[in-house]
């Protein structure tokens, strides 16, 4: 049996001998094709394991088309050298996008090396194969990292937005803005090879391949939502807060929706998500809503049958954004519901309105989503929203789910919190975490004040995950209760946040209810009221 030192020595000798420059005398007249298809003709004067030189400058072997690499390398190599044959096989296996012939030629090169040096070649070949595997793994990881950097995976609502007020737009400014938005929208669609029907309302510009009747239905929903928001915040009649108009792309094919999200908005959207609001332009002035909705003339898909332990309405994560655990269970793309999709579009229009109202500053996630769902419920005829959310929110609260933890959930939590269980993403059995002990009497380790044990940390993470799965439903109930009792106070609270005030401080000063008191009120009310 050969020792490890012998194997290492063999590999080092292979690398050392292969990287030394070998002069070609007389120079060799060559013609070769690069991997990108460009053909080059000239004289080759020297070469080594990684590259070759000549009248065309220095060229890397890996820059060649694999078939030309196979041919040219064999013209200059030492046909009796197992090291040269092994390096040729190595180069062929490292070639990017290599055809099947490259792998076959590499195996031929390794076979020839074994024939020449049966004692040392096998170990050297194995070393090369390990190097190739590591290189391919690194390439895959680099590609995946680049893809993840290019595509956002968290809701656009999660970004940090300024509280600087939007500039007022005159009538002429709005004409210019609308022309700009129209031009950009048409350019975006052309870049995707799309030509869609267009419907304009006073505040929205809708592009869709749905039947006109469905587009008009959605347009009416959006206009009612805008009016409800304008009334809540006491805007002048007919006032348009959008930059030109809010643009809405609606595709009946979910795959088209996901493709547009990826290519136009650089957003990687889960399959269950059916609508996303995107602030547009470098200054974020315009807003785009991208959505999918089925053709209602097609036969409706049947809903999954409820089981004995799953009799509650579908969780609010159905048309939501990046809620943990339940998305694929509730709303797979092949069973889209037209009313749920309409509700999701209206919900995103509320995000668009709030983006342009006073300043881009966002409400906390529970209120941002709660208000969006509340307006969707109020604005749609035969809305599914209340049925979708109310029972789930009550179930969470009546199972001692902590509303105060809901108030802490962020959009990052919605995207990254692990599901507490693959089959029950809305389990509310976890109770509030126990008080943190500063010392464990059964352990010699003394923790610092505030330091969590692994068990306590796991419990907190589980509690946060459960809260994230219920943010939409509990946020909906909380906002509905706030508006039912103090609509003007709610508007004042939003205005304070938009002006830059911390939401908790604004809740106490503008709405008149501290955060923990609001959590208690919501909890006590929905424990006994439907």
- The value of Rg in angstroms is 32 Å
Helix-strand sequence: HEEEEHHHHHEEHEHEEHHHHHHHHHH
- How is the biggest beta sheet arranged? 5 strands, mixed
What order do the strands of the largest sheet run in, or round the barrel if closed? Answer: 5-6-7-9-8
Nearest-integer average pLDDT: 83
Which geometry do the CA atoms define? elongated
Report low-confidence residues grouped into runs of 5 or more.
Answer: 1-18, 301-335, 417-447
β-strand amount: 5-15%
Number of helical runs? 18
The tally of strands reads 9
Distance between the termini: 78 Å
The helix fraction, in percent, is 40-55%
- Secondary-structure-derived class: alpha+beta
Based on the model shown, name its key terms.
530 residues, 4-stranded antiparallel β-sheet, 18 helices, elongated
3D structure, described in words:
It is a single chain. The radius of gyration is 32 Å and the shape is elongated. It has helices spanning 4-19, 66-76, 82-94, 100-116, 121-150, 171-191, 212-232, 254-265, 327-330, 338-356, 365-379, 385-398, 403-406, 411-416, 454-469, 471-498, 503-511, 515-528, and strands spanning 22-33, 39-47, 51-54, 57-60, 197-200, 204-208, 246-251, 275-280, 286-292. A five-stranded mixed sheet has the order 5-6-7-9-8, sandwiched between helices. A four-stranded antiparallel sheet has the order 1-2-3-4. Residues 1-18, 301-335 and 417-447 have low confidence and may be disordered. The chain starts with a helix and ends with a helix. The longest helix has 30 residues, at 121-150. Helix 3 runs parallel beside helix 5, helix 10 packs across helix 11 and helix 12 (385-398) crosses helix 16 (471-498). It contains 18 helices and nine strands. The chain is α+β, with helices and mostly antiparallel strands. 51% of the residues lie in helices and 11% in strands.
